[in-house]
Structure formats: C-alpha cells, structure tokens
Amino acid sequence: MGKTLKIMSLILLSVAIVMGGAGDADAKKKKKKKIPKKPSYVGAVKCNGSCHDAYYQAWVKSPHGGTFNLLKPGERAEAKKRVDLDPEKDYTTTPLCLRCHTTGYKQRGGFKPAGSKNKKGKDTSSTIDPEEPNKEQVGCEMCHSVAGGAQMRVVMKNTKGDFKKSDTEKYGQRWDYANVCTRCHTHPNTPFKPSVHDKYKFNFEERKKKVHKIADYWNEDNMDQKLEKAEDRAKEVSQSEKTPLVIEDFKIKKGKLKFKKGTKPYNKKKKSFNYQK
Ligand code: HEC
Ligand code: HEC
Ligand code: HEC
User: Fold this and answer.
1) Which residues contact 217 (CB under 8 A, 6 or more apart)?
2) Probe target for ligand 3 pocket from 91, 99, 207, 245, with the most ligand atoms within 8 Å of CB
3) Domains in the chain with CATH codes
C-alpha cells in the first residue's frame, strides 16, 4: 500500500470510530433504560462497567474478590485442616461452600458451578475469567442487593448517581450493611468460627473499614465516577436500616442447597420485601 493511501485509510477509520462513538452516546442519552420486571443477579463486572471502576479494581485485590480460589485443592491447607476439611479436595462445586464463597448461588442470575445443565442437557455453568473476577466470588451483590442487581443497575444508570437510598431499595438494594455480613461471617454453618481461631472474630465496625480500600484506585480514566450524592445519602435513614431485611436461611438436603421457607428477603409471589419484625 502506498504511504498516502495508508494515511488516508487511517484517517477514514478514525473518523468512523469517532462518529460511531458519538452516535452511541446520543442514543443512550435519548433512551432511558427500561427496568427489567424480574430481579436478577448480574455480577461484579457489570457494576464495574462505566460506573464503579475504582470499587471493582479494589475489590478484585480484596479478600472478597478471591473467595472462589479458597475452594480449590491446596489453597489454605492449614486453615482447612484445622476445621477438618480435606486440603486436597476440590470444593468448587460443593453447594454448602458455594453459598458463602460465590454470588447469588441458587438464585436467578446467580453463579452456576461447573457441570450445571438445563433440562435439555445444555451446559449452563458460569464462565470464569481469571483476569476478570465476577459471579464466582463474593461480589457486590452479596452485600448490596437482595436479588435486584439488574433492576437497581438501571435505576443507578438512569439517575447517574443522583438517587435516594429509598429509590434503590424499591428494586432490592439493601443498606443494612451490618446485617448483611451475618449471611456468612457469623452464620452457624461457617466452618471458620471464633472458637477455632481468634482471627475469625467478627467486629463489624473494624471490618467495614477494610471492605472498600478504594483510595489508591482512582485514576484519570475513572475520576469522573466519584460519587456525588454519597454524603446526602449517608444522612438518609432508609427502610432497611430501620428494620433490616431478613437474611435467607438455608439447609443442605440430599447434597443440594435449599432456602428455608419464609426466610427470603424478597417475596416473588407478592413482589414485596420481607423486613425483620
Ligand atoms: C456460612 C458461610 C460459609 C460457608 C458455608 C463456608 N464458608 Fe468458607 N468462609 C466463610 C467466611 C465468612 C470466611 C472468612 C472468615 C474470616 O476471615 O473471618 C471463610 C473463609 C474460608 C477459608 C479461609 C480460611 C483462612 O483462615 O484462611 C477457606 C479455605 C474456606 N472458607 C473454605 C470453605 C470451604 C471449603 C467450605 C465448604 C466446605 C466453606 N468455606 C464454607 C464463610 C463460609
Ligand atoms: C462484603 C460486602 C461488600 C461487597 C462485596 C461490596 N460492598 Fe460496596 N459497600 C459495602 C459497605 C459496608 C459499604 C459502606 C461503607 C463504605 O462505603 O466503605 C459499601 C459502600 C459502597 C458504595 C457507596 C454507596 C453510597 O452511596 O454511599 C459503593 C458505590 C459500593 N459500595 C460499590 C460496590 C461495588 C461496585 C462492589 C463490587 C465490585 C461492592 N461495592 C462490593 C459492602 C460491600
Ligand atoms: C457471601 C459471604 C460473605 C459476606 C456476605 C461477607 N463476607 Fe466478608 N468474607 C467472606 C469470605 C469467604 C472471606 C474470606 C476471604 C479470605 O480469607 O481470603 C471474607 C473476608 C472478609 C474480610 C477480610 C478479612 C481479613 O482478615 O482481612 C473482611 C474485612 C470482611 N470479610 C468484611 C466483611 C464485612 C464488613 C461484611 C458485611 C458488610 C462482609 N464481610 C460480608 C465472605 C463474606
């Protein structure tokens, strides 16, 4: 190819890219996204998207962003031995472990382990990309959502962060943070109890400070994602803070995870939320 021709085609290509991009942005502005009817988990990668990059990047490096690996053979052998787990066993498909080490297991849109199939026998297991942790870890939705990931994401996007706690609560976001940790940390079914080792003691105020160490993850590209209304929101006391939502309780029956009746925070039939009395 001649040099001028090369330059010409490069110019054409970049014009096309710029125009295409602008078209997209316009379309987005015009069209408010519709809120999906059914609550569903979407995964941490979606929360990163164009919205929470610093939170996502910090989470990837945080203990919650790596919980799935702990279920693999050879990981944390000492800790497993201490609680009579087999350090050589692969626990990545064990329902009990998946409940607390992945996102939305056994709920709509949630993580599906290797070997999952639908009725027609088609493989439905979640894809796992080691470069991009997602539903296979304890993701954003295990603390922020009841089951409405897809729904509240649309609310957040449409309002560009200018929302009240109550606006997202309608779609399943919960703000009863202290309550949420009890799903796993102080749950009777966790093998890792304070009686086994002091390090498993759970002090909410102290641990909370370690969840989002975002300070080092702001850069030129995500600076514009800093939350603008966060301080106003912090002053608001929402419904789930006054009366926390119930936490799903579960049992393992014939090797499968079953949620106990009446313990789900979201009532699918009534389309309403169950608050603690
Ligand atoms: C009810 C929730 C729950 C269940 C069920 C559960 N875990 Fe965990 N697991 C946790 C929590 C919470 C921690 C973190 C404890 C801490 O650091 O205070 C943890 C930590 C771990 C650790 C790291 C411990 C350390 O000291 O390094 C391993 C390994 C682990 N889990 C494996 C498993 C395996 C394997 C199963 C299934 C047999 C399982 N877990 C089931 C909640 C759970
Ligand atoms: C283990 C529980 C947990 C996980 C997992 C988690 N968060 Fe959080 N998040 C919290 C807690 C607790 C707070 C409040 C304290 C704070 O801001 O550090 C919070 C606050 C936030 C806020 C500020 C909200 C506001 O308006 O004040 C954002 C945004 C956020 N998280 C996004 C995310 C994203 C994105 C992910 C996943 C990449 C995520 N979180 C994963 C517990 C969690
Ligand atoms: C779905 C289960 C789950 C929920 C909900 C959860 N955690 Fe965890 N958390 C874990 C697991 C599993 C680990 C172990 C990670 C590891 O050892 O690498 C962990 C580890 C941690 C750690 C790191 C411990 C350390 O020694 O540094 C902190 C801090 C923590 N959790 C705080 C919280 C707080 C605060 C909440 C509630 C807002 C919460 N977690 C909710 C499962 C959960």
Assistant:
1) 53, 54, 55, 57, 58
2) 207
3) 32-229 (1.10.1130.10)
Closest to 135 measured CA to CA, from 152, 114, 156, 115: 114
185 C-alpha vs ligand 3 centroid, how far in Å? Answer: 7
Buried b or exposed e, range 221-238, using 16+ CB within 10 angstroms: ebeebeeeeeeebeeeeb
Structure tokens at 167: 């606006």
Containing 267, the helix (H) or strand (E) segment is strand 266-267
Rounded to whole angstroms, the Cα distance separating 237 from 164 reads 10
Q: Which atom of ligand 3 is nearest to the CA of 207?
A: 29
Compute mean pLDDT per 10 residues along the chain, 277 residues long, and list them.
Answer: 62 54 53 89 95 97 98 98 98 98 97 97 97 98 95 92 93 96 96 97 98 97 90 94 95 96 90 90
Nearest C-alpha to atom 40 of ligand 2 is from which residue? Answer: 140
CA distance 134 to 204: 25
Residue 197, token pair as written in the block? 């080792």
Residue 69 structure tokens: 């690996």
Rounded alpha-carbon distances, angstroms, from residue 155 to 33, 37, 55, 102, 159: 8, 13, 18, 24, 6
